[in-house]
Amino acid sequence: EHGGTAESSRQLGVEEHAVVKTLVMQDEKAEPLIVLMHGDCTVSLKELARQIPCKKVEPCKPEVAQRHSGYQVGGTSPFG
User: Which of 16, 21, 54, 78 could form a disulfide with 27 if both were Cys (CB 3.0 to 4.6 A apart)?
Assistant: First the structure.
């Protein structure tokens, strides 16, 4: 539940870059989107919004992310 990709990489014995995290985001209309990212990288929300394009992107609240994906936060699969 805690430790994120750093803990996952430690337990798997791989570099954190090799661990992929699944982030559930939403745009300004509350439309969901999934972002897959290397474990040691961060997402620029401004750049992501620019690329989509939309005005704003933000992470979903945990309960909203679970409703969209069906997975608990911390265990969201990119292959649902």
Answer: 54
